[in-house]
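User: Hey, quick favor. My workstation is busy. Could you predict this chain's structure for me?
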Amino acid sequence: MAITAADVNKLRQQTGAGMMDCKKALEESNGDFEQAVDFLRKKGAKVAANRQDRDAKEGVVLAKVNGTGKQGVLVSVNCETDFVAKNADFIAFAETVTQIALDKAPANADALKALPFDNNITIGDKFMEQVGKIGEKIDIGYYSTITAEKVVAYNHPGNRLAVVVGFNQNIDDEAAKNVAMQTAAMAPVAVDKADVDTATLERELEIARETTRQEGKPEDMVEKIAQGKLNKFYKESTLLNQEYIKDNKMTIRQYLQSLNKDLTVTSFKRFSLS
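Assistant: No problem, here it is.
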């Protein structure tokens, strides 16, 4: 059957694929729209297979909080180039994926990709469709959720860095944003000393011991000096013990306690595209 410009445009509006790709899909499917969509998806799968070994280190990082203010999500939808990452359609696609993640709270990235994108296809299928349209590898680079009595999100301009922070009780929006921006800027590894994982702790101690020995300190002083360096690490790398960047006379813990003596951070998630 003859393929009209209106048919091509209809398929293009439905899938977002290029005009020539839509025309070819309709020709290959003899004008059947459902088969044409399948053709485009298969093309995306083929492109994805060919680009499997490519790095998708660019993308869009977004944080969102639900209407209750008690649950947040952090998602990175990755692609290969900065050009695609800055495209308005790609950003809108990433925003939709992030909203679905917030609404459905899947257990992990694979479960997220298995969720419906719309009434017809899953997020994973939509990824394949986008790969066929854009010609780049696309994937979930990061996905995490957070639940707390109060959750705040911060999206840094440029969509390459985002944060969600949970608090044990309600907190003024401006104060919550201050803590979220601190988390974004200072990249803590944990909320408090006790939250630093064992592997990180051992690595920092071993580095401290080795640098102390290289400084020529007596062996019987190495452990004590290393512990001192570890305390410095805690002050620099755990959120509650960091100096507050807006007032370095107090820590984040002291800043929160100045607002409410029982107020604290329960958890946070931070992701950045390096």
